[in-house]
Amino acid sequence: MDYVLEMKNIFKSFGPVHVLEGIDFSLKKGEVRALLGANGAGKSTLIKIVGGVHSQTSGEVFLKGEKVNFKDEYDSKMKGISIIYQELSLIPTLTVIENIFLGRESVRGAFLKKEDMRKEYEQICKDFDFNINPDVITSRLSIANQQMVEIMKAVSWNADIIIMDEPTTSLTNNEKEGLFKIIKRLKKSGKSVIYISHILDEIFLNCDSASIMRNGKLVGNYDVKDLTKGKITELMTGNTNSGIKEKKDQTFADYKSEPVLELQNISRNNVVKNVSFKVHKGEVVGLAGLVGSKRTEIANLIYGVDKRTGGTILMNGKEVNIKSPTEAIANKIGYIPEDRKNLGLILDWEIYKNATAIQIDKFKTRGFLDPKKEKEFTGYGVKKLGIKINNAAQKMKELSGGNQQKVVVSKWLGQDMDLIIYDEPTKGIDIAAKEDIFHTVEEFSKQGIGVIFISSDLDEVLRVSDKIIVIRDGSVVCEMDNKGISVQDIMNKIFDV
Ligand SMILES: Nc1ncnc2c1ncn2[C@@H]1O[C@H](COP(=O)(O)OP(=O)(O)OP(=O)(O)O)[C@@H](O)[C@H]1O
User: Fold this and answer.
1) How far does the centroid of ligand 1 lie from the alpha carbon of residue 423, in Å?
2) Assigned fold of 3-237
3) What class does CATH assign to 261-494?
4) How many angstroms separate the alpha carbon of residue 19 from the centre of ligand 1?
């Protein structure tokens, strides 16, 4: 068999922690292979070995039959491997076009001319059905656009093997379509793709085959046509009953008392436009809309990240004027942000310091922080959300992406709140662990806390919400009671059908 990549009996340990235990993985020319597994199963670690970021503790890697030992990331790139990592690797101070062509000159053996770069850039934009100003400084772009640039950069490298680690997490539907087209084109031209995603629909749409991992071991290799979502979940977790619920089955909303939050015609310039809605005690309000519909911008006005230019916000019947996240927390508002890397976590800190950052005063003994108390609290969150860690003093950056996200959620457990906002909380979370996040929503609402739940996954919005508010272009389109409505009904409102 002609394999472009073969990994044989790969072991990887970080000190005493065994992350990969005897993985065999292979990829054929023109194959699109999914790499699946629960959060912390070892997917990213495996591809980081192919990418020259980590070297294996033991085992062998072959490229087109030839044994390789990558010296570093550059070496892997030069041998024809291009990776889109979960965390963006662009240089924020460079322009988009500079980022895309960075390091490419040496591949061609001569400097690329500016005009050639522009021509190539235009072609990539056309292929992606996408339009980003090449001269804009990258840090000025939205996270979605930065991710798109990252993808364009990886694909334009002209590698034989392209590895995508959760590439669609912040893309709009159009951009996703663009990416899926690119994958088809890559396949047709004989390139091979490894595709990691927790969104199983994407696997069925794009992949030929799948390798499933569990706890650092390979469960097996499968043809995607022989798999179902249920089967994948079962193979990933080793559990035949994942307890996944389709629908919300109880409500804790209290419509008799004063709403915990009332927005009256709030606006910000021409971005958020006269938005009004109420959140009652224990009520879960889902905000549905396309990526870019300005749901996060509304949340940012409530949490004091951005300044309102109009309208009034009431909490428990009283007008509030929250000017910063610190003031929001003092007003009993919690916020689980979409951009966890920049807003929710400090990756160089220990897990327990991240987990306790918001409620720090609770963990003091005689005025001093007590690490024992902090670790106890962290342990509580770890158990509640099934977070996979080795010990609470590990650095945050050592956790898998999905487990980092769970720590962001765990920070708010036990906090005295009237309202909590979840913004895309299940990004990067595996299918079984999503349910743990939904349970926290349920528990908060059971305690009488109002919840705003933002998600691009409408099944999720239906799963958790009492009421759904459809947002389009910064305005409220309608409010829908979650009674007998379907994803299609919400879609119709989103698209104005
Ligand atoms: N540098 C490190 N030191 C210690 N442990 C690490 C390090 N890097 C990763 N790990 C551990 O290895 C395990 C596998 O992590 P990895 O990121 O490969 O998982 P994953 O399958 O990609 O998960 P996710 O779906 O959440 O992204 C995790 O338990 C993680 O904590």
Assistant:
1) 24
2) Rossmann fold (3.40.50)
3) alpha beta
4) 7
Mean pLDDT across 13-17:
89
Q: In this predicted structure, what is the pLDDT of residue 343?
A: 65
134 CA to centre of ligand 1 in angstroms:
34
- Per-residue pLDDT of 231-262, as tens digits, reads 998 898 887 655 556 667 788 999 998 999 99
- 150 Cα: distance to centroid of ligand 1 (angstroms): 22
Q: What three-state secondary structure class fits 424?
A: coil
Looking at residue 72, the DSSP 8-state letter turns out to be S
Determine how β-strand 333-336 pairs with β-strand 284-288.
unpaired
Interface confidence (ipTM) of the complex: 0.96
Q: Which residues contact 367 (CB under 8 A, 6 or more apart)?
A: none
Ligand 1 pocket test target in 12, 53, 399 with most atoms within 8 Å of CB: 399
Alpha-carbon distances of 30 from 24, 33, 105, rounded to whole Å: 19, 10, 27
pLDDT of the residue at 108: 46
In the chain, CATH 3.40.50.300 covers 3-237, 261-494
- Is pLDDT of 106 > 50? no
Quote the CA–CA distance of 215 and 40 in Å, as a whole number: 7
Å from CA of 165 to ligand 1 middle? 13
- DSSP H stretches of helix in 277-362: 295-302, 325-330, 351-355
Atom of ligand 1 minimally distant from the CA of 388 = 29
Task: Kindly provide the residue ranges of all beta strands, DSSP E only, lying in 358-431, ordered along the sequence.
Answer: 364-365, 368-369, 419-423
Atom of ligand 1 nearest to the CA of 19: 12
Please report, for the chain, how many H helices and E strands are present, in that order: 17, 22
Closest CA to 392 of 409, 407, 402, 405: 407
Alpha helices in 399-495 (DSSP H): 401-410, 434-446, 458-464, 487-494
Residue 19 in contact with ligand 1 by CB distance below 6 A: yes
Taking only the tens place, the pLDDT of each residue in 332-370 is: 999 998 876 666 788 999 999 999 988 888 888 888 889
Please state, in angstroms and rounded to a whole number, the distance separating the CA atoms of residues 418 and 322. Answer: 14
Using an 8 Å Cβ cutoff, are 47 and 87 in contact? no
Strand order in the sheet with 272-279: 272-279, 261-268, 310-315, 318-320
Rg (CA), the chain: 23
